């Protein structure tokens, strides 16, 4: 390189530095204008009749505001439209305001509105929360962000995927919409919905429409099973969403267990589901109902079912006799399970049983027994012993009294429900068992 060429390059560099410094001084004297802080190169061009300044290399702008704080902007390259008070940004775009840090491949910052439109690999980081999308807008004064296209929100507990999301920084509130899925990988739990509203500070979320909770379980035997809960609305409470409240038209399905009710409280940390509002559960061929039902599932296995007030268990006596049902009723009922089979049934207070008899597969009347308590033990899924305790009374009904008149002998509160929820993959369908 010749001496003259070196002098020309040095002169150009000096001119660029002087021009950049001149621009910086001019902008600092103009309130409300996006101010240049640094750039390696400056070019001036005209685009559609407007003078545009092009900055290249380590470009840094600031946009101060006495009320809402200073917005700081970085990029590899920028086009500044002075009349429009906007800057187009390209390459390694970064925007900061207070504790919010935003990154993208390119974007435009509008000084008049103090907003940014960002495109390509957009990330917003605040504390331990990371929002990502293909496109987004940030409103500095409103402290709000809108993200669209392949949106995700991640924190230490879960990741939310959706089509669009609005984030309110001051309230720590986010509204997700369109194909919402909240994945908690540690607990193998996913919540789906049309939309979701989450308050980080209150540790509370709600899915206001079409929620579906899916939890993949592995039993002690290694068999993989899946719990599915659906309803009209779902609320989640706690740091790790350990409590879910599902309301209205609730259906539950897991293996041979199914349920329906008006409200279900799923306490994941306590391994239990509390069903209220006309609850009914099914296990195998048995239907169980009461005022409230608690299902305990420690270690991802069904351990016991507790039924309180107006407890009743019903099962078909014989598939060849559709109108004959074996029945148990009482104030309270407790069913224990072992290896996914019923082990015991305990009925307490005003216990009553009614079951049909068969002789060589031919109907042979029915027995009704009452007492303070009834205890039934099972071996390999079949009754091993039947014990009535306290104030025992019994009555036999001959076959001729029952024939074509079975419904007259059903216990008080009898109700056989044909519409049973069943799991199909990660969804619930209704099986109409007539």
Task: Tell me about this structure.
With 434 residues, this protein is mostly beta strands. 31% of the residues are buried. It is rod-shaped, with a radius of gyration of 34 Å. Helices cover 7% and strands 66% of the residues. It contains two helices and 30 strands. The chain has two domains: 210 residues, Lipopolysaccharide (LPS) transport protein A like domain (lipopolysaccharide transport protein A fold), CATH 2.60.450.10; 196 residues, Lipopolysaccharide (LPS) transport protein A like domain (lipopolysaccharide transport protein A fold, Sandwich), CATH 2.60.450.10. The protein has a 28-stranded antiparallel sheet that branches. Strands 29-30 form a two-stranded antiparallel ribbon. A hairpin with a 4-residue loop joins β12 and β13.
CATH class of the largest domain: Mainly Beta
Tally of DSSP helical segments: 2
Count of β-strands: 30
Structural class: mainly beta
Rough outline: rod-shaped
Main sheet makeup: 28 strands, antiparallel
Q: How much helical structure, as a percent, in the residues?
A: under 10%
* Global Rg: 34 Å
CATH architecture of the largest domain: Sandwich
Low-confidence stretches: 1-29
CATH fold label of the largest domain: lipopolysaccharide transport protein A fold
**What is the mean pLDDT?**
87
Tell me the CATH superfamily of the largest domain. Lipopolysaccharide (LPS) transport protein A like domain
